[in-house]
Amino acid sequence: MKAAPFSYVRPTRLGDVVAELVRADEDGGGKVIAGGQSLVPVLAMRLGRPATLVDITQVDELKQVGVVDGHLRVGAAVRQRRVERDHRGAVPLLSQALPWIGHREIRSRGTVCGSLAHADPSAELPAVARCLGATLDVAGPQGRRQISAEEFFSGAMTTTLGPTEVVTSVRMPLPREGEGFGFAEIARRHGDFALAGVAVRVRSRGGAVEEAAVATFGVSDRPRRRDLREELQGAVDRAGHDPDALARELGDAVAAMAEDVVTTGGDSHASPAYRRRLVRALGTRELARAYRSSLGRTAR
């Protein structure tokens, strides 16, 4: 299929982007486009029919990426491949997740903020943002505001972003001393949508677990985040630092989490029960690995 007819504008200033979205909202609705790797297929299948596409790729303010106040700030027009290539390791969990997104050609066009704004339940970056406690910067006719990743995702391909607002950047915290990370997903083939996946962040001090966050994706209508600090500490107390023994001790706790977070119905690729088993297997392994990594990590 082909997209329904639409108008196309490409402003060069953020204020003009907002003005175009306000104008489009009065005339059938508008959509922001940057990389287009998520939006264009939606348009082609006519699942969305915006009257206007507002291209933000010529707004210099949105092309910036760098470290600001202890965070990696990624502008809305920054390609995933640029972050993967030029800022490798700045945010370890982000660096672990980026190679799993589609294929290199997709990442060369797709943007980090575009994936977040699209809010696909099977996407990797929303789960990374939830796990890290990222903050999204937003601009609209009422000015600028910040939205936490916890509040941003409200459902499948649905966010709390207003129809005349645009994400300008996302801020992800740099790693702190004693933090370790884990990421894993299962798909039928590399580049396919994930059947299930986990993003993990653990912080420890002197072997004691201070935080253990697990965010899941591909198993519900949005990324889900759970705190397993007490469960991980109990496993460490029983099994010590051996990753295999830790994974075994964590099995029941992660299985209980999987029962809670897996809410998607079955499909031709995987049943809910299979997705729960995947979450348990991936979650126990990555929690153990993240804990081991946290023991030897020092702040930059």
From TrEMBL:
<feature type="domain" description="FAD-binding PCMH-type">
    <location>
        <begin position="1"/>
        <end position="177"/>
    </location>
</feature>
<dbReference type="InterPro" id="IPR005107">
    <property type="entry name" value="CO_DH_flav_C"/>
</dbReference>
<protein>
    <submittedName>
        <fullName>Molybdopterin dehydrogenase</fullName>
    </submittedName>
</protein>
<dbReference type="InterPro" id="IPR016166">
    <property type="entry name" value="FAD-bd_PCMH"/>
</dbReference>
<dbReference type="InterPro" id="IPR016167">
    <property type="entry name" value="FAD-bd_PCMH_sub1"/>
</dbReference>
<dbReference type="InterPro" id="IPR002346">
    <property type="entry name" value="Mopterin_DH_FAD-bd"/>
</dbReference>
<dbReference type="Pfam" id="PF03450">
    <property type="entry name" value="CO_deh_flav_C"/>
</dbReference>
<dbReference type="GO" id="GO:0016491">
    <property type="term" value="F:oxidoreductase activity"/>
</dbReference>
<dbReference type="InterPro" id="IPR036318">
    <property type="entry name" value="FAD-bd_PCMH-like_sf"/>
</dbReference>
<dbReference type="InterPro" id="IPR051312">
    <property type="entry name" value="Diverse_Substr_Oxidored"/>
</dbReference>
<dbReference type="InterPro" id="IPR016169">
    <property type="entry name" value="FAD-bd_PCMH_sub2"/>
</dbReference>
<dbReference type="GO" id="GO:0071949">
    <property type="term" value="F:FAD binding"/>
</dbReference>
<dbReference type="Pfam" id="PF00941">
    <property type="entry name" value="FAD_binding_5"/>
</dbReference>
<keyword id="KW-0560">Oxidoreductase</keyword>
<dbReference type="InterPro" id="IPR036683">
    <property type="entry name" value="CO_DH_flav_C_dom_sf"/>
</dbReference>
<keyword id="KW-0285">Flavoprotein</keyword>
<keyword id="KW-0274">FAD</keyword>
